[in-house]
Amino acid sequence: MSFFNFFRVLNRKARRSLSGRVKQQSRMSSVSSSSQDVSFTSSTSSSKYRYDGGRRYHGDEKVAYLLPNDNEEDDRMHQQHWLVALAFGSHFDSPVQAELEAGTNVLDSACGPATWAMQMAKAYPNSKVYGTDISERFPDSIKPSNCEFLVHNIVENPPFPNDYFGFIHQRFLLLGIAKKDWPQILAHHLRTLKPGGWIELTELSYAKLVNAGPKAQLTFDTAITVMNKGGMDIDLANNLEPMLKDAGFVNVQTRSFDMPMNHGGKVGELFWDDFQQGYHSARPIWAKIHPDIAAPGTFEKYIEETGEECKQYQTCVPFTRAFAQKPPLA
Ligand SMILES: C[S@@+](CC[C@H](N)C(=O)[O-])C[C@H]1O[C@@H](n2cnc3c(N)ncnc32)[C@H](O)[C@@H]1O
């Protein structure tokens, strides 16, 4: 069984164990770490859901996130994890390998179903990996023993001490965070990172597609309409560097990759598969903006034609990894 399928099975088992239990408004979790013993309290309720077009969403009005948090979306997240690893050729760019091997505290902020967090926990058994997310979509029992998860809204102050993490990882919040909230989130990360610790953010841009045909452009314009309403940054990938500098991080570096849609071999194939699933996750949005296209039968045809168009135009979506350091002590 591939590693990807192994985690799909684990995650399904974990979800089954979750669904049979009454979830608490907030959960206390006692944590032992290599550096200190700390107690953390999950800060946000996970029990609020809303349903639209047969999909389940986070129901908290304070949370801007646009995509579902159901099993189908979790499967898409797992696959996207492997797509990104294949495209970038690694799970991270920050120079933290030696520290991870020796043992440090790692945060996967907005970890989703936690594929990255569990992969890192397994690869670096001396390190302790924490995952936080607004939805309790991570496994609570079937997981590496050096992995801990908490329900938390990352806009709010996280329940971690100052200077706690050696490495903070966060990705794909383009459709989740309003532009005005980014400085606050980065201030929390700066506070909880150790001096000299590294932060790494991966995002994509909806603002500047490469070689877009009319159907792909309409797809991104539809997303942009909703993102503008939520005050989100449609060019987030290209704004990571200035945002990190403004927040007080140093040694800011970036690496970009134009992700091919439905061309260019395995990466293009996987990304198109991810994108098609994304279409279905976003169908309730389409139903509001373009009800004609979202109609059953028409929507599937539209997706198929967009795939062909992307192949013909060689369309790509720009992704960027940005990594930076909390200023080391003098
Ligand atoms: C696109 S998913 C990416 C998940 C994960 N980072 C990955 O790469 O697989 C975005 C995640 O951010 C979470 N999220 C959105 N807004 C959030 C918030 N304000 N606080 C915490 N998590 C949030 C969502 O629940 C979702 O799991």
TrEMBL record:
InterPro entries: Methyltransf_25, SAM-dependent_MTases_sf. GO terms for molecular function: methyltransferase activity. Residues 25-47 have a biased composition (Low complexity). Residues 18-54 are annotated as: Disordered. SUPFAM superfamilies: S-adenosyl-L-methionine-dependent methyltransferases (SSF53335). It comes from the Eukaryota. Residues 106-197 form the Methyltransferase domain. Transmembrane segments: none annotated. This is Methyltransferase domain-containing protein. It comes from Lichtheimia ornata. The lineage of its organism: Eukaryota, Fungi, Fungi incertae sedis, Mucoromycota, Mucoromycotina.
